[in-house]
Amino acid sequence: MQAVCACSGKPTMSKREPLEWICRDRRLYISDRPLIMGILNVTPDSFFDGGCFFDFDNAIAQGRRLIAEGADILDIGGESTRPGSEEVPVEEEMRRVLPVIRKLARQTSALLSIDTRKAAVARAALAEGAHIVNDVSALTHDADMADVVRTFGAGVVLMHMQGTPRTMQINPQYRDVVTEVRQFLADRLAIVSAAGIDLRQTAVDPGIGFGKNLEHNLDLLACLEMLTALGRPVVVGVSRKRFIGQLTERPAPDRLAGTLGAVAYCIAKGAHILRVHDVAATRDVVNVMVTLVAREHGGRADGD
To answer: Which of 82, 103, 241, 269 is catalytic?
Structure first.
């Protein structure tokens, strides 16, 4: 049954006060222009680009390419969280990501994010120069993760997921997906704050495709302003995902146009951070959207 959304459904992109996001020694102020988080999967089995950047040299080259194309953040992951995936041992995950983070941290000034559920991996990645922990379990998978984030003063992305990557797409169920996801994220913000993490370190992610079917994903995107109302930056990951394929009837390699349509909609609905594989194309969408909306409101958009 499709959830009934209480939001207006109208685009919300307009002039807004900047949100501060503290990521160790970096302070980001996110306002009308969303940030782009480029995906760097150092895995053999991710759903779209698994194996493409598993080799160290290829991973470094891709990281530098994404930065040159305009990525504000690089999100580096060594464990696939595609539907049905199995957990990777800590030692193997570290072997995959730490050399990449180490070299990129020394060769570039890019903001680096470690995409992991494991505290040991996050701790080692932060020690090598990462600034952000992107945890698909919202710090619920590993009891030590909150302590790692607090100790390093790292930025942290709290994502909603029903189940685990292995089980999440086995008939996901909600009474009202928007209300339930919003409440989960609000509760997690309260819990991490009580654990001593400054809320200015936090961002939230509705987890598109993580324990959601097509209707769930569409409802969440239509009501994105209910999540921006939490007062923290909202990260949205729609890049080449299954729901894009369901809407376009295209496989992952042919979902760029559909992804960019979803990205433009997310920008209009107030998303702060766009997690994508295709940085250059997304940067074009951001530039056009920001310029058009600024003109609509009688102002000028700042160039890159």
So the answer is: 241
| φ, ψ for residue 48, nearest 5 deg | -105, -55
Residue range of the domain that includes 116: 19-296
Query: Left, alpha or beta for 9 (phi > 0: left; psi -120 to 50: alpha)?
Result: left
**Which residue is catalytic, options 33, 182, 275, 283?**
275
Over residues 215-244, the pLDDT tens digits come to 999 999 999 999 999 999 999 999 999 999
Query: In the block, which residue shows the tokens 């942290």?
Result: 156
Q: What is the pLDDT of residue 10?
A: 52
Could you tell me the pTM of the whole model? Answer: 0.91
Active site residue 103: no
The answer to the question of residue 232 being in a domain is: yes
Q: Coil, strand, or helix at residue 73?
A: strand
- Closest listed residue to residue 224, CA positions, set 272, 187, 294: 272
Q: What would you report as the CA-atom Rg of the chain, rounded to the nearest whole angstrom?
A: 18
> Is 26 tagged catalytic?
no
Report the candidate in 246, 303, 237, 267 with the shortest Cα–Cα distance to residue 14. Answer: 267
Establish if 9 belongs to a structural domain. no
Model pLDDT for residues 236-291, shown as the tens digit of each residue:
999 999 999 999 999 999 999 999 999 999 999 999 999 999 999 999 999 999 99
